[in-house]
Amino acid sequence: MKSELKKTLTPFQLWAIIVGMVISGMYFGWNNALAFAGPVSFIIAIIIVTLFYTAFMFSYAELATAIPDAGGSAEYASRAMGRFGGFLAGFSSIVEFLFATPAIAISIGAYIHFIIPVIPITGAALVSYGIFVLINCGGVKTAAIIETIVTIVALAGLLIFAGASFTHIDTTKIVGDGAFRGGFSGVFNAIPFAIWFYLAAEGGAMSAEECKNPKRDIPKGFILAILTLVVLAIVTFVCTAGVMDAKTLGSTDSPIPDALDSIYGERNVFSKIMSFVGLFGLVASLHGIIIGYSRQIFAMSRSRYLPKFLSKINSKAAPVMATVVPSLIGMLFVLLNSTAIIIVISSFGAIILHAISMIALLMLRKKEPNLERPYKVSISLPIISILLDIVLFITVGYANISTVTFVVVAYIIAIAYYFIYSRFTTRGEISMADEALDNDIKKDKAI
Q: pTM, whole model, 2 decimals?
């Protein structure tokens, strides 16, 4: 019998999960780009990435609405390309999410250490990670309520920051001397950090199976989420880079509190508030991404890409093993304490995942023309998304050759695992997974 997740999510909760997954990117990480590039160079990177994510998310909503499955991209790719394509998509999603969470947890530890210096960064990071793993084991309804609350608080924090800094913006800090520092090489180096403004936005698709009315709720949640994120990215960058020296901004772990310090003096009331509220932004993303990767691994196990025990659910219908096991791996990466490298690796996973997803969309248009698509986009959007994704891959790869090598090795190991595991997985188990997929396709065609 197929393990089922409860359908409890509303469009507002889906919006909160998507925005929550990403919102930590407004509070930290993106500013590292300014260590390599001037503000204008970074703006070019932001424009490229924003155009890509807008085209991608509108297109991705078509897939998620037509095939509302916890497997997300892995399910779409499997239907379009077969099991191997589904595995590559699922593995790419795991790389993106599993490397994002340690970076976020480390930043949570840094914020807690800033507020209470006696608490060590690594210890705070690990404890915070563990707390939200336990919350996720309590079921999606509880997880979604908590995600909604922390996301709203994090959004309120960004609005407070915008209000406190907007009238102090000095445009010469953005377009003055050194604005194009690093040139086009700076643009290339800045792209992984521009991606951080939107990284994991597609993770909401992993919660599609838990929406009350996927065909209606998913487009609403997805489109509202990407529009929210575009506005937040613009406001965050302008209100921060417009009040603070770019090079200084590029070297800080807490850009928003430091920007407020540059306006109102060190340890002012606004920066103290933002140091506390910033935790909510980081927590929202940590919590949301745990929701995302647990559903991805649950679905891949259910489809027999991964060991069967990972698709076990508890009495709350939460995929407990798919939550706990990868989280333990994520905690090991917390101990490495190398945020910049982790961000780049996560970005590579995202770029590869996006390409596979858009190719799957185009293939499904041809392979399953009668598939019910309650929300359908112009064919130009996935094509634009693929072209921009190629640009992102080339530029990020050019600027991070050593990291590319690591990612290539990781994919080689994953592909070897796939073929070895397939040999030891019984034909009956694979046939059951394939039969379930075929039944889904027949059901869609009948509709």
A: 0.85
